[in-house]
RNA sequence: GUGAGUGUAGCUCAAGGGCAGAGCACUGGACUGUGGCUCCAGGGGUUGGGGGUUCGAAACCCCUCACUCACCCCA
């Protein structure tokens, strides 16, 4: 084979492409119901935007970005995530202003140069929602509820919500100091990466999956016991709001997000039905991020859903939103060459009425026409030859039931209502 | 970036040193204005690619590429 898709990227073909689209529509609807409005963001940005926001020493920035140069030598990057882009756009267009609330969501492809595996691709899709403005526990809880309720409603198999607080600029330094001291004292029990991380990003050590490290971490100080009064109250009120809303969660003192910008509330939805990449949605609060990107001092909270992972979960549960509707309502077949123009006219008329139809111009035998019609996914076949052409009718046959009827062609009420009435209601939405 | 497993027809898979095959799919016909069934016939392959061993390689060895899963990391 001469050409094939690059490693880690996938072609989505029907009917999977259609289910994927419906999944995206579901998410769009869910966010819209919670007051978010969509922004369409560029797929590449100045590389510095991501190094600044995601963090210099994160894996994403260190080794996973697709970097390239513009014609003028600018350093550009294919976006590895959406929050940085969205904030850049919000700042640039003055949507992030003190005292004002912006609820925005985005949806689209992200790029990370990683080794592909189950639930992990080099080009993948995320849908993310961000609330800019309020620094309010109820806002956090409401955002979390939006996704948790979606998960409940659609029945995501094995989904659990993990919850933690990362503290703020006031309390994190003290915790960091205590944690570093704890880790330094037990250096010999830690893996190589973790030892390096003590210096670069000690909180990430908490996340390490090496067994020895986890054992060592069992007695490590928990961030939640170092929270300053304000952060503590914020976190408690988030928990309380979730309790009152009957949103189940699991307190996870060692939950640390992989991006540096998170403060206060951090959360992650996981499912053990996913394989090694168990997170299907995640987010948190990022109170210093907008200002560090050159915007005003506006707090924010947001999350992102991994669409492919969501797809995998829904596929496993057998709840993918597949279309019940046939892709084509009617396939029209000319029974002789003289009827071809007649068929073309009917196609135009039906399409003007909003009825999807195709012409079977390649079939030279009636039997082949039937096979082609089925292959197109048509509900009906329409036949026109000398007889029909002569009296301005068309013969319609229901491919499922075998019922057949000759009716006036064109936009005749009889034809249109026949084609419409037999279409089963789209039960997928 | 590291490791393991797998690459044979469009798909699912046989053949484990001696003629590359089956089922499904595809094309044509039986069958010229009424399909799905059946029957007959046919097209399809540098066995992922390259090199080596051998009289002979899909098979054994080396390299390489791709896929899958895991590490890592994350949505």
Give a structural overview.
- The structure is a single chain.
- With 429 residues, the chain is α+β, with helices and mostly antiparallel strands.
- The chain has 2 domains: 16-171 and 227-317, BirA Bifunctional Protein, domain 2; 328-415, Anticodon-binding domain (Rossmann fold, 3-Layer(aba) Sandwich), CATH 3.40.50.800.
- Helices cover 37% and strands 21% of the residues.
- The chain has 15 helices and 16 strands.
- It has an 8-stranded mixed β-sheet with strand order 1-5-6-11-10-9-7-8. Strands 13-12-14-15-16 form a 5-stranded mixed β-sheet, with helices on both faces.
- The longest helix has 18 residues, at 16-33.
- It is elongated, with a radius of gyration of 28 Å.
- The structure holds one RNA strand of 75 nucleotides.
């Amino acid at each position: 084979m001469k050409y094939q898709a690059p490693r880690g990227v996938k072609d989505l073909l029907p009917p999977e492409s259609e289910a994927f689209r419906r999944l995206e529509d579901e998410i769009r609807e869910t966010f819209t119901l919670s007051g978010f409005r969509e922004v369409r963001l560029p797929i590449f940005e100045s590389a510095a935007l991501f190094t600044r926001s995601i963090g210099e020493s994160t894996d994403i920035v260190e080794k996973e970005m697709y970097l390239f140069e513009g014609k003028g030598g600018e350093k550009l990057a294919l976006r590895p995530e959406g929050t940085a882009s969205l904030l850049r756009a919000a700042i640039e267009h003055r949507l992030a202003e003190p005292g004002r609330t912006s609820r925005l969501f985005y949806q689209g492809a992200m790029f990370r140069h990683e080794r592909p595996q189950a639930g992990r691709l080099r080009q993948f899709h995320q849908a993310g929602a961000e609330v800019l403005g309020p620094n309010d526990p109820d806002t956090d809880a409401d955002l979390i509820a939006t996704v948790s309720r979606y998960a409940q409603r659609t029945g995501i198999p094995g989904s659990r919500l993990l919850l933690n607080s990362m503290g703020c600029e006031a309390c994190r330094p003290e915790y960091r100091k205590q944690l570093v001291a704890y880790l330094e004292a037990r250096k010999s029990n830690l893996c190589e990466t973790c030892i390096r991380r003590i210096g670069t990003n000690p909180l990430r050590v908490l996340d390490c999956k090496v067994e020895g490290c986890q054992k060592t971490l069992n007695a490590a100080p928990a961030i939640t016991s170092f929270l300053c009064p304000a952060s503590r109250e914020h976190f408690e009120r988030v928990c309380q709001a979730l309790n009152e809303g009957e949103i189940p969660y699991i307190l996870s003192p060692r939950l640390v997000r992989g991006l540096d910008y998170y403060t206060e509330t951090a959360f992650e939805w996981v499912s053990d039905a996913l394989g090694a990449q168990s997170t299907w949605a995640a987010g948190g609060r990022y109170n210093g991020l907008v200002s560090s990107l050159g915007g005003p001092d506006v707090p924010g909270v947001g999350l992102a859903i991994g669409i492919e992972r969501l797809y995998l979960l829904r596929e496993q549960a057998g709840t993918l939103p597949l279309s019940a509707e046939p892709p084509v309502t009617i396939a029209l077949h000319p029974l002789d060459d003289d009827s071809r123009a007649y068929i073309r006219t009917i196609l135009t008329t039906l399409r003007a009425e909003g009825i999807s139809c195709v012409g079977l111009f390649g079939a030279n035998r009636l039997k082949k026409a039937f096979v082609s019609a089925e292959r197109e996914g048509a509900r009906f076949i329409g036949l026109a030859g000398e007889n029909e052409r002569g009296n301005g009718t068309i013969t319609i046959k229901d491919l499922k039931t075998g019922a057949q009827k000759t009716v006036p062609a064109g936009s005749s009420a009889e034809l249109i209502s026949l084609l419409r009435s037999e279409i089963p209601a789209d039960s997928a939405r």
